[in-house]
Amino acid sequence: MFNMGAEPRLTVYARDKHGIARSSISRGALKVCEILQTHKFSAYIVGGAVRDLLLGVVPKDFDVATDAHPDDVHRLFRRSHLIGRRFKLVHVLFGSETVEVSTFRAGEGGEADEHGRLLRDNVYGSRVQDAARRDFTANALYYDPHDETVLDYHGGYADVRKKTMRIIGDPILRFREDPVRMLRAVRFAAKLGFSIDPKTRAPIRELADLLENVPAARLFEEMLKLLLSGHSAACLAQLRKEGLHHGLLPLLDVIVEQPLGERFLRLALEQTDTRIQTGKSVSPAFLFAALLWHEVLAAWKLNEAKDMRSIPALYLAMDEVLDAQTDKLSIPRRLTTTMKEIWALQPRLEQRSGKRTLVLLTHPRFRAGYDFMLLRAESGEVPMELANWWTRFQDAELEERNAMLIPDAAPKKRPRRRRKSKAADLPGAAPVQDDPPN
Ligand code: ATP
Ligand code: MG
To answer: What is the DSSP letter of 167?
Structure first.
């Protein structure tokens, strides 16, 4: 670990120097610190929140670091629970706010795998050790709400001012301990408009393959953070630049070479970033469906070329793409189910005839499928006229809708037996074609 020799020197910044107003700290975080301090523990706001406040950015959430043991924290707050994934943390709830409280950790003494990856990081330590085990200098600042000082052991204050992401300690060692830190460097740099310090950046390309040893679920989590950062386009561009995208999303290799795919992806990311930046929600399933769409299209075409019927060829393509993806970055099933629904709606939305078109309006994923088709139209993959048709169709009255439907082509061989019953005229009652093959 870092700092085998002398202790890093502590610099304390007073209120008039750092300029962070106590009023910009969330009520919950202030309360947690206050109660811990009343019980003679030390407690600080740490991590991203201090960094963001120095930058004048509203923090996403507030983390608190303390010398109190998780059990003590849990005992002090009625509405709290212990979270025990990679290490023990406490989530303290205040209304809709969750404050994450972590006990100072040493960052050493844990188990590592043969590549140097820390398998556990759960040895408690002092504040100075806790600062050294954090990833970047800008993320290792401690704000004490009681006296309004900012404590800095690693030059994080200056790095925030210089807009530099700098790893604490030896970059190779720290990236080996946790290769996800490479992705974090890219995310923070892209999101905050920081540059990555040259010494921190230098080994990244060479160490990129270490991401393969990271559990797929953790990679997914990190990738989601990156995509939902409000700066996904910049993040992905920087991932490519650092050579970190290989294997994570194999499509990123191919996509730049396909003009339509590139445009589609760019539009999807831009739309996501705009939504996040304007406080709207984003559906991860929609986003991943977009990221993998051109892979699905390519596999679909291949399957059709093998003489498969179109719809079974699409369903097979969806499974092929998702299976290939799962090795590296496993997308949870709750998302893949929705992704498949969005994809499967695409050929159905291209038909504008018959009852099954009306039925689509009641499909639980209609809205997502329609939004997805809008993206395809904007990228030039399907005619804009098709998208406009759906825009009008969904708002039209029943009579107008019927008039808009393109008459079914005359049946070629055996005519379908028509249903007589009235109920067949109601949306939802018509037989839906193109259902998945069993
Ligand atoms: P944001 O929440 O804005 O994405 P953050 O810096 O708060 O950014 P978190 O993932 O919430 O990031 O983590 C909180 C803090 O925990 C970080 O600021 C950092 O100090 C520490 N940390 C998180 N992940 C790591 C890691 N992989 N290695 C070392 N320290 C980490
Ligand atoms: Mg945070």
So the answer is: B
Q: How far apart are CA 156 and CA 162, in angstroms?
A: 10
Q: How far is the CA of 48 from the centre of ligand 2 (A)?
A: 5
* 144 is a catalytic site residue: no
The answer to whether the beta carbons of residues 128 and 8 sit under 8 Å apart is: yes
44: left (phi over 0), alpha (psi -120 to 50) or beta: beta
Average pLDDT rounded to a whole number, residues 198-211: 95
For residues 353 and 405, is the Cβ–Cβ distance under 8 A? yes
CATH of 1-167 among 3.40.50.300, 3.30.460.10, 3.30.450.30, 3.30.420.150: 3.30.460.10
The per-residue DSSP string of 70-135 comes to HHHHHHH-SSEEEEESSSEEEEEEETTEEEEEEE-B-S-SS-B-TT--BS----B--HHHHHHHSS
- Could you tell me if 212 and 245 are in contact, meaning their C-beta atoms sit under 8 angstroms apart? no
Residue type, 4: M
185-204 tens-digit pLDDT: 999 999 999 999 999 999 99
d(CA 179, CA 396): 53
Greatest mean pLDDT among 170-174, 287-291, 409-413: 170-174
Tell which atom from ligand 1 comes closest to the C-alpha of 49: 7
pTM for the full model?
A: 0.83
Catalytic site includes residue 72: no
Which listed residue (63, 130, 197, 273) is catalytic?
A: 63
Decide if 63 is catalytic: yes
User: Ligand 1, residues 26, 57, 63, 173: which to mutate, most atoms within 8 A of Cβ?
Assistant: 63
- Tell me which residue of 109, 41, 24 sits closest to 75, measured CA to CA: 41
